[in-house]
Amino acid sequence: MSVIDVPAATTKSRRKIRRPDLASQWQLMWWKFKRHRLALFGIVVLGLFLVMALFAEAIGIGPPGQRDTAYVAGPPMLPQLIDAEGKFHLRPFVYGVKPVRDKVSLRMTYQVDTAQIWELGLFVKGAPYRLFGVVPGDIHLFGTDKGFIHLFGTDFTGLDIYTRSVHATRASLGVAVVGVLVSFILGAAIGGAAGYFGGLLDDLVMRIIEFIRSIPTLPLWLALAALLPRDWSPLATYLAITVILSLLGWTWLARTVRSKLLATRQEDFVLAARLSGCSDTRIITRHLLPSFLSYLIVDTSVAFPEILLAETSLSFLGLGLREPVESWGVLLFAAQSIRSIDQAPWLMIPGAFVIVAVLAFNFVGDGLRDAADPYSRS
Amino acid sequence: MIRFLSRRLAYMALTLLLVSLVSFVIIQAAPGDYAEIFAAQKAATGAIITLADIEAMRIELGLDQPWYVQYGRWLAGALHGDFGYSWAWRRPVGEVIAERMPLTLTIAFATLIFMYAVSIPVGIYSAVRRYSFGDYAFSIAGYLGLAIPNFLLALVLLYISQQYFHQSVGGLFSPGYENAAWSWAKVQDLLAHLIVPVVVLGTSGTAFLTRAMRAAVLDELNKMYVLSARASGLSPMQLLLRYPVRMALNPIASTLGWRLTYVISGAPIVGYVLALPDTGPLFLNALLNQDMLLAGALIFIFCALTIIGTFVSDLLLVLLDPRIRLE
Amino acid sequence: MSALAEIPVLSVNQLSIAVDNDGTPVPITDDVSFTIGRGEVLALVGESGSGKSVTALALMQLLGAGLRIARGEIVFETHDGFRTDVVRLGAKGKAIEALRGARMGMIFQEPMSSFSPIHTIGAQIAEVVQVHEKVGRAAARARAAELLGKVGIPDPVGALDRYPTEFSGGMRQRAMIARALICKPSLLIADEPTTALDVTIQGQILQLLRSLKREFGMSILFITHDLGIVAQMADRVAIMYSGRIVESGPVRDIFRHPVHPYTRALLDAVPRLGDIDRGRRIQPIAGAMPNIFDAPSGCRFHPRCPVRDMPRCAEKLPPRAEVEKHFVECIHGERELAK
């Protein structure tokens, strides 16, 4: 070893040195992705959302459609550890509430009743449900033995906002996933055709993409959504909205697929592969695809938050999904007027789910973007 | 350069034509035509309308003609500012829009200025002081800005101003100024009212532009010409402002058209939530009421605005970048 | 060699540069020492990855992020009595900025990307004068035009207002030289300035550099991997292998009597006229230069060396042998030099 006064020569630190010169593309990408702490965090959050969507019945407190007439438009009930007398409780609890009529507005409000302590428990028995529509169960992530808990409060009809938000994960992420899938297929097919056949078709596709990008799309989608017949079933509306939203994302993917296909087709390594007798299939799967698959993944990850936000906005305005389908946007529909958020600001809480989900998607997207080009510096 | 401009001009004309067609399709796609809606309205007031009356009205309005004739008429009218008659407002569409358009434009331009005024310096700072505390702080703010839906930010600001400042943000002027003559105080009042819509509309765009600016400057900083300028003895500040920033401004300026598209795209929802007297609520209510002549006209105008904006940003780019100028 | 060349402009002593690999510094160059005399041309020769370009950048404190000078000194002294250790100046601040472009000039391999594409050639050259000297814009432009004329650009005044894209590669490299020389530096660092150019243009640029060297009386550190250029340009040559200088000395000595097996292999890899008639084939060097992450122990060339003496060569660095300014770092050095 050389005689330089840096601790590189010790065996221990030597083992730690990574060999970027020997690593495979995917290994380099993983190293880079791991360095992006926020992206790892985003993955974890998205995983939690997935769990929430799959096991919504067990994570929610009761059936999402159950109205609590004893607690209508009630504020969030925060779990406590220390009671009014300063005594520490090992088990978290919520205080009971009692209804009071506001003397001025004559509205029903609720007052915290520190005399009543409702203890919380994990994995408590509650309302029965069927997981995935088949598996029966009655265990809920948390709940109270006596009284009730509305973690995020209730709306004007007594529906529990926490439970509904958990259930809404399904529709919100479902629309995003299906929308992204459809735009992925559209983008890959259209962009692939343009890149592969080139010529007139390529010109046409590029002009169309340019056109779509140069107009304000949201008003256009709003208009399309508004044109959906009102008497369609919620499921039909759901599907139609998903398709409309997927029209948002495909242009980016199509452009990436097309330009990468065009660029790599002329690369030396492809020519070299062809000259050494590789079949077309092998060239596409072993040489072309890996060289731009990472970019496709990045573009897909960018499309997620876009579609999620669009769905939320549409539903919030009453032009997207509708009751009884529950998405975060549908829940926010209730918060449309200044009067309702003035009386019950907690109606905006489902928005926090949207923000967290979009943040997580963006973090992961950034990590992927950095990792996608593993040979770039820094 | 002349060729470049004439090509862009021709492209703009073509896109405008396409957009008008799309708008017309949307108008046509709504169930029922004007005559039927008119008849339904009349019938609701108790008047007796026969099928023959409806047919006569169709002929009078030209609704019996093939679609391309109708489209031609609509387009010819549109070019003169005549977009037909809004049944919900019972007034000509052009008139209704003209009343509210200036405010939409004011907000859109104020938002654009806000976005660039914030994102360019912040982006440069973040690139130069990469991984510093400030960079992280701005980047967190940027992530949040990108993640909060416009309408939610509007709702939150609405709630805060209502709850803590006891002031309504809706509208453009405080009650006293609404009909007052223009004065400095009135301008100040207007600006104060513009802040919330502009911030709401511009937040995510600003976050996006800041990131783009930061990435562009970082990218330029790694270029060979920067090293060669450093080797000539330029100080970091001279270097930064003369080369990388100047270069990074090109892509930023060239996206002006897209940014405008973006702002126009988001404006209706923000206007609706904040109850501004602009085209936002007009558009959404037209959609909800299926007042399609009005909605279609607005879509056409929104699109036309962004297409013209894109053309202007192309012009800007030509001025900024000699490589295109010399083409 | 003239007497002036005995007075050094630059003496680099035991320079080590390290790269940061996830918090662990890994040496890129190790114990690099050389001097350049007044009016002298020193060629630094090596394969890509040998550390020659990094060494050049270090001379002006222009190392990129992650790279740093771990040890050594770079003493720079000019005829007017200016003397400094560049390592001590640091990479930031007025002192090093005043040095760059004024007392040391540098030209790069890529004339295409060494100019900003959106500023005129004239502005980019004139600004160097304005940064270093208290002159007005007009005077700076006049100086720039004068220099453009000297480097052989036709219509130098008109060229001031043209953009780099309007110039050919050779013209851009000429403009680059004008920019590097406008403040009359004592030392010009030329990092493979002709690699990206056509052969005919290459010859013109080398010719230009030679005549400018005489006119300006400057020294040149010429970095290249092309031994043909070394023969044309240099007074002395230093051969770099895997971050170390393995042999250095007057060009004539090295070419006639190469000692280090790597130098010999390099010279053998150069095609000469008449090779085919004599039935001689080019001898490629077996193996590849080691990666900086696993530089071999002992002499770094030993895994590829045809005359190695194992295990001695793998155990420790060979001693440095010298005969009449001809240095070599090889276990057989002393014996071979004596021949």
From TrEMBL, chain A:
Q: Which family does it belong to?
A: Belongs to the binding-protein-dependent transport system permease family.
The species this protein was found in: Devosia nanyangense
**Keyword presence, Transmembrane:** yes
Membrane-spanning parts: 38-61, 173-199, 235-253, 346-365
Domain of life (superkingdom): Bacteria
Keywords for this protein: Membrane, Transmembrane, Transmembrane helix, Transport
GO terms of biological process kind? transmembrane transport
Q: How does this protein sit in the membrane?
A: Multi-pass membrane protein
Q: What is this protein called?
A: ABC transporter permease
**Keyword Ion transport in record:** no
- Database matches in InterPro entries: MetI-like, MetI-like_sf, OppC_N
Q: Which residues form the ABC transmembrane type-1 domain?
A: 169-365
Q: Where in the cell is it found?
A: Cell membrane
UniProtKB/TrEMBL annotation, chain B:
InterPro entries the record matches: BPD_transp_1_N (IPR045621), MetI-like (IPR000515), MetI-like_sf (IPR035906)
Please give the start and end residues of each transmembrane region: 107-128, 140-160, 190-209, 256-275, 295-320
Main subcellular localisation: membrane
Q: Domain ABC transmembrane type-1: where?
A: 101-311
Q: tRNA-binding as a keyword?
A: no
PROSITE patterns this protein is in?
Answer: ABC_TM1 (PS50928)
Entry GO CC:
plasma membrane
Q: What's an example GO BP annotation here? A: transmembrane transport
Q: Which UniProt keywords apply?
A: Cell membrane, Membrane, Transmembrane, Transmembrane helix, Transport
Q: Which locations, inside or outside the cell, does it occupy?
A: Cell membrane
Highest taxon above the source species = Bacteria
Q: Using the record for this protein, list the coiled-coil segments as residue ranges, or answer none.
A: none
Q: Which one Pfam family would you cite for this protein? A: BPD_transp_1
How does the UniProt record describe the way this protein sits in the membrane?
A: Multi-pass membrane protein
**CDD domains (UniProt xref):** TM_PBP2
As for family, the record states: Belongs to the binding-protein-dependent transport system permease family.
**PANTHER family, A to Z:** DIPEPTIDE TRANSPORT SYSTEM PERMEASE PROTEIN DPPB-RELATED
* Protein name (database record): ABC transporter permease
Q: Which species expresses this protein natively?
A: Devosia nanyangense
From TrEMBL, chain C:
**Membrane topology value:** Peripheral membrane protein
Question: Which Gene3D superfamilies does the record cross-reference, listed alphabetically?
Answer: P-loop containing nucleotide triphosphate hydrolases (3.40.50.300)
Where the record annotates domain ABC transporter, the positions are 10-267
Q: Which InterPro entries match?
A: AAA+_ATPase, ABC_Ni/Peptide_Import, ABC_transporter-like_ATP-bd, ABC_transporter-like_CS, Oligopep_ABC_C, P-loop_NTPase
What does UniProt give as GO cellular component?
plasma membrane
Predominantly, its location class is: membrane
Q: Which GO terms describe its biological process?
A: peptide transport; transmembrane transport
Instruction: State one molecular function term (GO).
Output: ATP hydrolysis activity
Q: Which UniProt keywords apply?
A: ATP-binding, Cell membrane, Membrane, Nucleotide-binding, Transport
* Keyword Transmembrane helix annotated: no
Does the keyword Transcription feature in the UniProt annotation?
no
Q: Which domain of life is it from?
A: Bacteria
**Alphabetized NCBIfam families for the sequence:** oligo_HPY
- Designated name of the protein: ABC transporter ATP-binding protein
- Organism (species): Devosia nanyangense
